Amino acid sequence: MSTGPSRRCASRARGRRTPAALATNLGSPKTRRARRTVSLGAQLVPVLRDVVAGRKADELVFTTATGARIAQARFWDRVWHPAVVAADLRKTPRVHDLRHTHASMCIAAGTDLLQLQHRLGHESLKTTGDTYGHLMPDALAAQARIATTMLGDALPQLEG
């Protein structure tokens, strides 16, 4: 779910925020691959099924109590920032940082970059690798161990 531009990064006119700067345009995804099916955990499916019951396919999933679009600035002020303060975090993460946290957790659980590219909707594997490749420092060593195991006794024994 996109909540629009970061409140801190909203355009400014003469140093003041304008209503247009805080507006969110909901449009097509940035890339062709961004339009995708994302798998969900089994425990989340019934919860979301109840949330979307009776809604059309093109309606928003997460809305205000009155069914309106959630305004990013209000969400930040009323929900996100108070939750960050209550969590007593050293840094103030952005909502978008949840996406990076999810990607990092997927890598830690063994997801390869190609699978992650599809999950995140990146157009290019290069984008995924450039963004998250540093989280896989042991990948080359692991690949070397796999290759050695696969070759087994086929490798000549070197005498020392």
Give a verbal description of the structure.
The chain has helices spanning 19-22, 45-52, 72-87, 97-108, 113-120, 125-132, 139-151, and strands spanning 12-13, 16-17. The chain is mainly alpha-helical. The model is unreliable at 1-17 (pLDDT under 50).
Order of strands in the sheet with the most strands?
A: 1-2
Strand portion, in percent? under 5%
Tally of DSSP β-strands: 2
Which range best describes the helical content: under 10%, 10-25%, 25-40%, 40-55%, 55-70% or over 70%?
40-55%
Summarize the structure.
It is built from seven helices and two strands. With 160 residues, it is mainly α. The longest helix is centred in the middle third of the chain and has 16 residues.
Observed structural traits:
160 residues, mainly alpha, two-stranded antiparallel ribbon, 2 strands, 2% strand, disordered N terminus
Task: Give the SSE map.
Elements: E1 12-13, E2 16-17, H1 19-22, H2 45-52, H3 72-87, H4 97-108, H5 113-120, H6 125-132, H7 139-151
Antiparallel strand pairs: 1-2
Helix pairs in contact: 5-6
